[in-house]
Specification:
By secondary structure, the chain is α+β, with helices and mostly antiparallel strands. Helices cover 29% and strands 32% of the residues. Helix 1 crosses helix 4.
Length: 254
């Protein structure tokens, strides 16, 4: 008899638990719907203000904090065909291409050679767009993301004919992941954060966002990097890089 009562009590408890979990799940769904609706309203408001937005994504990404150190100039492996300049900064390589590196005015050849010198790096459209000259910026790829801090860049210089003449290189080494990856905010959420922080205004234009690593602080000889959403913004004749903390949504723009 006692066993029968316990069995009935357990069934009641399981039933109540199912109801609780169902209500909790539904409340989460409603909250997500409200967030989605709010985002849609803000995007509509931005378009009414003639703010030109990119074709943004709404997918979640996962990333983590990382720590890294600057590579010494002597640690960087460089292909042949360079004249290396001495520099006061031991973490920089300043190089000029020798004349025989490139074939006669062949764009395809130029790109092929650049790919050799930028191995481990990839073209960064945001940082390149922010330049006021013909330089092209490549970012070191770390944990699948480009680094937008100067400590992980190659900047190629070009002459008036559009031919690469040299580059400045910095590199990160001894990269360590500091914690397990966790979800970042979406590109859409980052755009809305920029609007709420008054970083973009009526008539402005925003580039596509790129999830990237940016330096935050230095601890025990290591630089600490966190994921950020990086955009190039255009306001009249001005342009500038905007950054949003991809974990918290805080404004990191300078």
């Amino acid at each position: 008899m006692q066993f029968k009562r316990i069995k009935i009590l357990m069934l009641i408890l399981f039933f109540l638990l199912d109801i609780f979990l169902l209500n909790w799940w539904r409340s989460g769904e409603v909250a997500q719907e409200r967030v989605t609706d709010a985002n849609t309203d803000i995007i509509t408001e931005m378009k009414k203000q003639k703010i030109k937005l990119p074709r943004f994504g709404t997918s979640l990404h996962y990333s983590s904090y990382i720590a890294a150190q600057y590579a010494n100039r002597d640690e960087m492996s460089l292909p042949a065909g360079l004249d290396i300049s001495t520099s006061n900064h031991t973490n920089n390589v300043v190089a000029k291409f020798k004349r025989d590196v490139f074939k006669k005015n062949s764009t395809a050849s130029n790109e092929s050679v650049l790919a050799t010198y930028s191995a481990g790096y990839r073209f960064n459209p945001v940082l390149t767009a922010d330049k006021t000259n013909t330089d092209r910026v490549y970012s070191q790829s770390v944990e699948g993301l480009p680094v937008i801090a100067e400590s992980g860049m190659i900047t190629f210089q070009y002459n008036k004919s559009g031919k690469p003449v040299g580059f400045t290189k910095r590199q990160l080494v001894n990269v360590e992941r500091l914690r397990d990856a966790r979800a970042t905010i979406t590109e859409e959420d980052a755009i809305i954060a920029l609007y709420r922080y008054n970083e973009i205004d009526s008539g402005d234009r925003l580039s596509k966002g790129y999830l990237s690593y940016d330096r935050t602080l230095t601890v025990n000889g290591y630089d600490i990097f966190l994921p950020v959403w990086a955009f190039e913004a255009y306001s009249g004749n001005e342009k500038y890089v905007l950054k949003i903390n991809a974990f918290t949504g805080d404004n990191l723009s300078e």
